């Protein structure tokens, strides 16, 4: 802390005011408390506003809002099943790819890479996390989608596509866009977040645990699998939940590559939508006070409930580490 | 490591099954090492691919006119002046509103709320707000600042970004204040300084570098945000610095132009994407350098 001298100097310079100190203290404490309460009110406000705004649609459609896969503005009939399905499927694909990737990156950075390599590579991974999501969307649409359409999806159709049951997941026309592409883009986006948590957790592990395992003759992989992984299991799950929370609410990147079609189907190549992408796309055509806007807000409420449960789990798991 | 090799060496000299197991273990270790390196390479390749794509497609459209002309109908050689100015106005206003609130809330968590359940709840909520879907923040601000007024506005856009700034600043402020040694607080208090001076002039001052880093990271985060602006400041194709009217911004312009059928609009979208990414990454790197190797300790 190079700021210490500055702080010390300020301290000696400013001691002469006893007058008004008590009032100043009370005032300042009040302001600080107020700022804390503002943060609380924001969350409460967001929940209340969605609840009030979405109540109209929830009253009209009842529980059926969750189970109907219809989104038909012409007859004013809306259901949340398709976007909820798309959100869960893309996030699941994202996690399926991101978790092993993040493990690999975190292991590489903490245990394998020499110092001169791990520092810049770690920074690069953190920078990937800072890239705005709309950039991922453009990159996905102009770079990944053509690759998916021309190479990856035809190859998958020719190989796994013929398998008895899982083949249905990899069938259909290779548009390039769709649930699978959306999930893969999400994976690239959330891997840096999960890897960052894992890296912190692995680094915070007492070195003596690893050293004793090495001392007993374990290989690096055995130390990882049998010492580091069990020790960090809870916190790592917290990091994975954090990544899931990000994936569920991702909007712009998904909107570019998901194909935007309101349907539920077995094929991962088929276009779909997510809660966030549907809101982003349909919102401009939803006049204030319409049932459609209310349905979108009800969707927002569902998204908020899902992601807050996920993030709350993440916080609890990460906190158990006992700081 | 030397212990490992001796043991493996001894094992392979003894009995055949032991040698097989040693080979298997070494192979598993090698395979894991390679896979981890491959995973890292994949992620780095994604970053490189994004940067190369942005530079190769965006740089060609980067002229002086990009910064001097406004967005215009396709084919008439428009620039990005109004989105750039709009983005700057909204980001600055967002930080001016969000940073003080976040700073004070961070002070509350680190200095005043210790031990109280209110602080625990605020910390929990702030952490959730940090990762909450930004599109929901946009909907929230739409319903309280756009709906009742009846029109979109740059002010509403800035407020939605401010809500995203707050939790980032809260988090860094609290973390940084906790690094300030208690002895400094005690020394100031012993000299008779009132509590608010101890906090603002000693603690916040000692932690100012870290707090500034947090604010920089918040700037980087919100300057690339698109989803909340779609519902609040909407975007504006003509020049407007009126906070009470729809306001243009780089991310929303990218969103509108990237999907269009006009080549010059798509080109502008790439140029805007290059500008915003370069800006965000440079701010991030500056923030990291400013943090001065906190990670290495």
TrEMBL record, chain A:
Specify whether Membrane is a keyword of the entry: yes
Q: Where is the ABC transmembrane type-1 domain?
A: 84-314
Any one of the GO CC terms: plasma membrane
A single GO BP term for this record reads:
phosphate ion transport
| TM region positions | 27-51, 57-75, 87-109, 129-149, 169-195, 234-257, 295-318
Top-level taxon of origin: Bacteria
Q: Which SUPFAM superfamilies does the UniProt record give?
A: MetI-like
The entry's family comment says: Belongs to the binding-protein-dependent transport system permease family. CysTW subfamily.
Can you name this protein? Phosphate transport system permease protein
Q: Which gene encodes it?
A: pstC
UniProtKB/TrEMBL annotation, chain B:
This protein's GO cellular component annotations are:
plasma membrane
Family annotation (Pfam families): BPD_transp_1 (PF00528)
Please classify the protein's predominant subcellular localization into one broad category: membrane
Keywords recorded for this protein, A-Z: Cell membrane, Membrane, Phosphate transport, Transmembrane, Transmembrane helix, Transport
Domain ABC transmembrane type-1 intervals = 84-287
Q: Name one GO biological process term.
A: phosphate ion transmembrane transport
**Membrane topology field:** Multi-pass membrane protein
| An example Gene Ontology molecular-function term | phosphate transmembrane transporter activity
Q: Where are the transmembrane segments?
A: 30-55, 84-109, 121-145, 151-170, 210-231, 268-291
Q: Where in the cell is it found?
A: Cell inner membrane; Cell membrane
By sequence similarity, the record places it as follows: Belongs to the binding-protein-dependent transport system permease family. CysTW subfamily.
PANTHER family membership:
PHOSPHATE TRANSPORT SYSTEM PERMEASE PROTEIN PSTA
What's the protein here called?
Phosphate transport system permease protein PstA
* Gene (UniProt): pstA
